[in-house]
Every structure is written in C-alpha cells, then in structure tokens.
Amino acid sequence: MRRGRLTLLRLAAACAAACAPRAAPERAVPPADVRALPKVDVHAHYRTDHPDLVPALQAWNARAVLVNVTGGEPREIAHKWADFQALRGAHPDRFFVVATFDPFRIDEPDFAANVVAQLRADIAAGAKGVKVWKDIGMEVKDASARYVQIDDPRFQPIWDFLAARRIPVMAHIAEPLAAWQPLTESSPHFWYYSHNPQYHAYAHPEIPRHEAIIAARDRWLARNPTLTVVAMHLASLEYDVDEVARRLDAYPNLYVETAARINDLAMQPSEKVRAFMIRYQDRVMWGTDFGEGSVSRAGLETAFDQHWRYYASADTVTLGSRQSWHRTVRGLALPRVVLEKFAHRNAERVLALPAAGARP
C-alpha cells in the first residue's frame, strides 16, 4: 500500500512538472537597442583627432579609454601621454586616459620613488589607471641580465601606492599561448606575429616560457589582494575561458577585458563562452585595442558590428577578415543585463568613470 502511494505521488509530481508553464526563452537584444546601448572601450590607443573617429564612436554610443604603453622604440611615453591628453581635452565626454611608466629603468637609483612621483602627477592630471605591458616578463632585463617579472619586489612600492589610492593596474602580461607555438595560418594571431616577429617567442627560446610569466603574474595577484588589476586580453589565457575562470575564482581583485581576443573566443564553443560571460558578468569588460591605424568610419563600423553581433545576437557571425584569418560562429546572445555590465557598467565601476549620460 505504501509503495502504491509513493508511486502515485511521483506520478503526480511528474505531471505537475510537465504541465507547468515553461519559462519563455531569452530573446536576443534587438540590433537597434544594441547600437544605442552605452559602451566603454576599456582598451584603445587613438592618438590623433581623426575626423572619422568621434562620429564612429557616437554612432555606437561608445566612449574609449586611451591607454598609454611603453611599446616601440623610442618608447616616447611622455609624447604619447601628451597626445592622449590632447584628444581627451578636445572631447572630454568621449575619452579617458590611463598612464604608464618605464620598467627598463628598474636598475636606476630611486626607481620606484621616481615612478611614484610621475604617477602621482599623472593621476592628478586625470589618469584612471596605470598600464603595465608585456615587456615586463619578455623584454626587460636587469643589470644581472635576468628577465624582470611582474612580481619583482622592486616594483612593490608602486603597487602599494596605487592600492592605497584605489587606482587600478591594467596589466598586459605575457602574450597569447600561440606566441610560444609554431606559427600557422590557422591561428588568429598569424598576422600579428608575421609582422611582429620579435614577439613570436617560439623563435626566441631565450624568452621565458608562457607558464613562467603567467605564474609570476599569479604570484603578484596573490601578494597584492587590495590592488585592483584588470588583466588585459583575457589575462593572456585567451585559449581557454576555463583557465580565465580559474584565476577569477582565485583572485577577487582580478578583472579581465576582451581586447584583440574576440577571435580566440570564437575558437571555443559558443555555449561555453556564453556560460563564462554570464557566470562572470561582473568581472569582464569590452575592449578593442584599436589605435590610429584602425581609424576610418567604414572600418570602425564593420569592426563594431562584428563585435556586437557576436556578443548580442544569436545569428551566425563571421569574425576576422575574408582576406586573412576568419571564422563563422554563432553569436552569444547575452542577456541584456549581462550586455550592460560588459559594455559599460563594469568599466564605469572599476575605473571610476562617469556613468553613461553623466557629464565628465
């Protein structure tokens, strides 16, 4: 009798579950709404007031963070900073600035004190963060000819200064894993390493291994839990969002952005990437890594359209260029609340930017 009663209860529960109304499937955000959605590109390098630049950003309701960087010879950090400040001054409602410092001077007397003095002035001049680049780990050597890693204790006074002032560090540490692998046309990084062979670490075995640089970065995060860090380019773990997730779980002070790595996301299953973006919706930001070489109204329109069709729609989207690497994938169709955080809210919160629509 008892068994029969249990069977009836199970059948009733199954019927109730089957008959209950199902939740409506999430609908993709309409294209017009996606275009109008406020956006902050947290990683851009525009240095000139090209006549197409601001209209292209306006068309997508986008603002941009202009990130200074030590890359190139001569490094010209002060000159680039002046260019970024000029563009920000011309369009204060459209652009923000991030400073950097020269790590190649690490052996100089009073290195950290001099960097702190420079950054104090940069912050007073409007810097929303401080960039560190892949030259730390891959290029910078000290007087003993050892490669300098991001967890080097000689940097620590700089991190303490920034943590105390709640200024985030935007950290491009290491390169994609592809830099340590043979160069093939099937890689989304083929064009870059073909044109920048000095960073193709596979051909330069003297450069520390990817895992060694990432391990130093992870030690740095662990030792500086009050320092906010935005690990640029998906934390140089672009090949697998599960690896990015491991770091986000381990380091509550860590955030990531997607600049120049959308093609790496497209190499992974869309459902896996979508689940990652939803789970870590408070920790991921949109970026492009576009600079003055990218500026044309048509070029920016095509690139922004690719980006936002991939993130916002359920359509099939071709990323890349038909003339070089390209891949057709299904869009992520992220829910509106996730899109809003990814597009601008996370950047506004982490970099202390004015909210969309507010005056600078």
TrEMBL record:
Position of the signal peptide: 1-23
Gene3D superfamilies per record: Metal-dependent hydrolases
Presence of keyword Zinc: no
Top-level taxon of origin: Bacteria
UniProt GO MF annotations: carboxy-lyase activity; hydrolase activity
Amidohydrolase-related domain location: 82-352
Alphabetic keyword roster: Hydrolase, Lyase, Signal
GO cellular component: cytoplasm
InterPro entries hit by this protein: ACMSD, Amidohydro-rel, Metal_Hydrolase
Pfam family, one: Amidohydro_2
GO BP annotations, alphabetical order: secondary metabolic process
Protein's name according to its UniProt entry: Amidohydrolase 2
